[in-house]
Every structure is written in structure tokens, then in C-alpha cells.
Design goal:
The chain is of the alpha+beta class. The protein is built from eleven helices and 13 strands. Helices cover 32% and strands 24% of the residues. The strands form four sheets. Strands 1-8-9-10 form a four-stranded mixed sheet. The radius of gyration is 21 Å and the shape is flat.
């Protein structure tokens, strides 16, 4: 039986964190190729460091896309807000080492003859949902993400001009009866302009944090750690190098659920690291939204070049109102068998919708009118409630 009383922590990082800058650039590359060709292939890795941006990886798409990437990459960095001496959107050195996709990989993935499109790699992907927040996400992660999102909005609007882009949050909650009841500690490190003290930063950020957390969660016993190192002026890629795909737990469930190990950013939707993780979240969320369980974890396994999943596993954590084996049979059928092609078509993933996913989590977001975050829809609920 799952524990009912415990303390749990999740962290998040802002769009200005160096690893998230790298994720944003890699997903900007994905969007650029999918805009030119919805069936383009992209595997882009980005390195950012002091006044330097380096792209590497393999692509398959229309000629001319690579030549136009520098402008898009610099625009992405500008949108994040980097105009610092050590990292500036306009003056940072830019190098692109993208090259053609391996023909061996392409042969395994491409549909040909009687062979359906195969998975872009082997791997195991997980999806998770829990009813402890309206977003059906772990509360510790959702609040950590929301804190940074509202601070970014305040910074970008000009309301909080003393804040800089690089920030990290961490929320620790006490659970009773399996539900979060109070915050035991809150950690926030916020990059700031020269001259501010930790108390100055605390005075800026605390009102935003208090608005994010539910009423009553912060009490006299809650521990606060605002800029605990004392000074955070040098940050972003100038303070620490950033790489694509190093924040996979921030991207998913904050440690509250398993992760298969694959990153999302920089990958087109033939890569099941991304697309199968999205469909697994979609199915888990619909199961919980339909009231079939309080929590749901789904695992799907794939082999490179093979279209049919090797495995499909459902765990309702002892909270289910329907047999898990029954869901293991039904859920794949609702999404065309969960083959790579079926996933792309069901969620309409061959669109330039990925740069927006690079910060504040790939899950727990609102579906966009243009198809972004389609995996957050709960359009299977009516079918599932009939079980």
C-alpha cells in the first residue's frame, strides 16, 4: 500500500537556465524544419556557454533551412531576455554543425513496401497523472513551475526590472492522506542586477510565490531559502554551460514518476523519446480525468525500426476502479495501436509546436488552439467513463 504521510520535493528551472536555453534553441530548430516540411527529421543538440552557441546533430529536410537558423536562434535568445556582457543574443558567437541524417537510421524509421514507419530508437517511455492538482500533475512540480512562470511574466513585462532570466525553484510539501497539505520549505535562486541583497530579492519574489501556492500552504513553520548563496549576478550560459536534454525530470514529473531516460527537446516526432512520452501522458491523464483512478502510470516499450510497441503497462497505484489488464488492452486501441505513425497522427505532432514546450514543463499545460500541447487534452474521458 502506498504511503499516505510523507514529505516530497520537486524542482524547476526557468527559461533562462543554461540547459533550458539550449533546449529552447534545439526546439527552435525542430520548429524551423517542421515549418518547411512537416515530415522533416531533426536530432539537434545545443551547447551554450559564455558568448557562444553551438549546434550539432543530424537533420533531413529542405535545403535552405539551415542557412536561416541563425536568425531564429538569436531571436529565441532575445525572447528569453539575454542581453548581458557574458551572453548576448546579438553578439554571441554562433556555429552550426548540423549534418544529414544517417541513412541507416532513416532506413529503419521510414515506411517502405509493407513495412510501417518504425520507431526512431529503442527505449521505454512513461506517462503519469495524479489528481492532486487541477492540471493532474504532482503538486510539488506544478507549483515549482508556476512560480517561475509568473516571475518570468513579471520580468518580461518590465514590472520587475531587477530580475534576470536565470532562476531555479524548489518546493517541498507535506502530504497527509496522500494529498498535499502544506509547504515545509520553499527555495528560490533568482539572478538579479548588481547591487541587490538577498533580502531585496526576497521582497520582490515572495508575493508572487504566495499567489501561486494554495491559501494556507505557507505558515509560520515554512522554511524560506531565497538566494541562499548570497549573490546571483553572473548567471545563464555565462555562469554555467548549458546542454540540450539535461533537465528531463523538470520536463516531466519532478521525480514523482519514473522516466525512461530520453530527452524531448531537439527531436522531431518520429523519435519515440518524445512522441511516445506524450501519448503515455495523454492516456494517463485521460484515465485519471475519467475518474478511473487517482493516479496512473503508463509505460510503453519500443525497438528501433519496429512500429508495434513491445510492451504496454498500466499501474494505477492501488487507486483504480477498473482492472489494469483491461486498460492495457483498451488504451492502445484508442490511439491506433500506439505505433509511431499512429501517435503522430492522433496528436497531430507534425507541426511547429515545440519551442514553447522547452521551459516550464511539457506536461500540466493548457492545449493551444494551434495544436500545441495536444497531449494535454482529455477528449477520451467519455469513452473511458463507460468502462
Amino acid at each position: 500500500m502506498a504511503r499516505q504521510s510523507y514529505i516530497f520535493t520537486s524542482e524547476s528551472v526557468s527559461e533562462g537556465h543554461p540547459d533550458k536555453v539550449a533546449d529552447r534553441i534545439s526546439d527552435t530548430v525542430v520548429d524551423a524544419f517542421l515549418t518547411a516540411d512537416p515530415f522533416a527529421r531533426v536530432g539537434c543538440e545545443t551547447l551554450v556557454t559564455t558568448n557562444r552557441i553551438i549546434l550539432a546533430g543530424e537533420v533531413r529536410g529542405p535545403e535552405g533551412v539551415i542557412e536561416g537558423l541563425e536568425e531564429k536562434v538569436r531571436a529565441a535568445v532575445k525572447d528569453i531576455g539575454y542581453e548581458q556582457e557574458g551572453f548576448h543574443w546579438k553578439t554571441a558567437d554562433y556555429a552550426c554543425h548540423l549534418h544529414a541524417q544517417s541513412v541507416d537510421i532513416a532506413m529503419g524509421v521510414d515506411a517502405a513496401g509493407n513495412k510501417d514507419e518504425g520507431a526512431g530508437d529503442q527505449g521505454i517511455m512513461f506517462g503519469y497523472a495524479t489528481n492532486e492538482t487541477p492540471e493532474l500533475m504532482p503538486a510539488t512540480l506544478q507549483y515549482s513551475q508556476n512560480i517561475l512562470r509568473v516571475l518570468a511574466e513579471a520580468r518580461k513585462s518590465g514590472k520587475e526590472k531587477d530580475l534576470e532570466p536565470d532562476q531555479k525553484s524548489q518546493v517541498t510539501l507535506q502530504y497527509e492522506g496522500g494529498k498535499p497539505v502544506r509547504a515545509t520549505s520553499i527555495v528560490l535562486s533568482a539572478q538579479h542586477r548588481e547591487g541587490l541583497t538577498p533580502q531585496d530579492v526576497a521582497d520582490i519574489v515572495k508575493p508572487y510565490i504566495l499567489k501561486v501556492l494554495p491559501e494556507g500552504f505557507v505558515d509560520a513553520q515554512t522554511e524560506w531559502h531565497i538566494n541562499p548563496t548570497g549573490n546571483f549576478v553572473i548567471g545563464g550560459p555565462d555562469g554555467d554551460a548549458g546542454l540540450t536534454g539535461r533537465k528531463i525530470i523538470v520536463d516531466t514529473y519532478g521525480g514523482a514518476a519514473p522516466h525512461g531516460g530520453g530527452a524531448f527537446s531537439g527531436k522531431d516526432p518520429t523519435k519515440v523519446d518524445r512522441s511516445a512520452a506524450y501519448i503515455a501522458r495523454y492516456l494517463a491523464k485521460n484515465v485519471v480525468a475519467a475518474g478511473l483512478a487517482d493516479k496512473a502510470t503508463i509505460q510503453i516499450g519500443y525497438a528501433i525500426g519496429v512500429s508495434k510497441p513491445l510492451s504496454f503497462y498500466v499501474d494505477l497505484h492501488g487507486t483504480g476502479k477498473v482492472d489494469e489488464a483491461r486498460l492495457e488492452t483498451l488504451l492502445p486501441q484508442l490511439v491506433g495501436g500506439a505505433s509511431p505513425r499512429a501517435i503522430r497522427e492522433h496528436l497531430k505532432l507534425n507541426r511547429p509546436i515545440y519551442a514553447r514546450t522547452a521551459a516550464y514543463g511539457h506536461f500540466g499545460r493548457q492545449p493551444d488552439a494551434d495544436g500545441g500541447f495536444s497531449w494535454e487534452k482529455t477528449d477520451l474521458v467519455d469513452q473511458l467513463r463507460g468502462l
